[in-house]
Amino acid sequence: MRRRRGAGAVPRRAAARRPRAGRVAGALLLAAAGGAAAWGALRVAAWAADPATFPVRRVEVAGTLRHTAPAAVRRALMPYVRAGLVRMDAAAARAAVEALPWVARAGVRRLWPDAVRVEVEERRAVARWGARELVDAAGVRFAPEPASWPPGLVRIDAPDGREAEAVALLARVQARLAEAGLRPVRLRWDARGAVGLVLADGVAIEVGRERTEARLARFVRAFGAALAPRWKEVERVDLRYANGFAVRWRAASGAGADAAGGAGGRA
């Protein structure tokens, strides 16, 4: 026997459709809210990225600067800070500062709400490289304006690609010669590996290709007794001998080539 529906009964299909319709409406509302939020976020991002919203009003330059003017650092940064604090490409700005000839490393960071700070570390030149460049302690060559070169740098003439080795050799040569109170102003290291020096007083020293440090050490040991009393008369010293070295005297001294510190053929 079929049961009769009461007067207030709701058909099953209609009852099932109502929750489904509610879910669809809720999803539409959520989608609309999400779209509005995304649109708002885009508007905020566009507002923040506008250079006029967060303009860079101040650039701080920090670091011990001996050869790089702060104004030069600011000029290098100018194309990037014009984009505003938000849109500024910090990596590109750093690269622009590091492209300055005396700059070894730089760091660029934002200082909210309107400033940029640049930390600069300069290169330290240890020698001249040929006639047109300098070289730092790491063997990196760079070419700043000659007017900015520090005075008194030793000149190195050596093959390209051997910068770090040449700088290290110079340091050892300087330390050894300092024991005798002598100072090199030029180091020549040719493609065959032969080393030659010119000292501050104009004396030339031929060291040769082999046992460079041992030969210099032998020369320094003999310097005080054998050469120091007549050093002003010396024109050239040749260390390329197995057991000693040869001396060429200046013409005014009246002496010719002489041997000191032992004998033996030249190596």
UniProtKB/TrEMBL annotation:
Membrane topology listed for this record: Single-pass type II membrane protein
Subcellular location: Cell inner membrane; Membrane
Gene3D superfamilies: Cell division protein FtsQ/DivIB, membrane protein fhac
GO annotation, biological process: cell septum assembly; FtsZ-dependent cytokinesis
Segments forming domain POTRA: 54-123
GO cellular component entries: cell division site; plasma membrane
Domain of life: Bacteria
Pfam family, one: FtsQ_DivIB_C
Keyword field: Cell cycle, Cell division, Cell inner membrane, Cell membrane, Membrane, Transmembrane, Transmembrane helix
Keyword Cell inner membrane applies: yes
Main location: membrane
Record carries keyword Transmembrane: yes
Family note: Belongs to the FtsQ/DivIB family. FtsQ subfamily.
The protein's assembly and partners: Part of a complex composed of FtsB, FtsL and FtsQ.
Function comment: Essential cell division protein. May link together the upstream cell division proteins, which are predominantly cytoplasmic, with the downstream cell division proteins, which are predominantly periplasmic. May control correct divisome assembly.
Protein name in UniProt: Cell division protein FtsQ
Organism (species): Inmirania thermothiophila
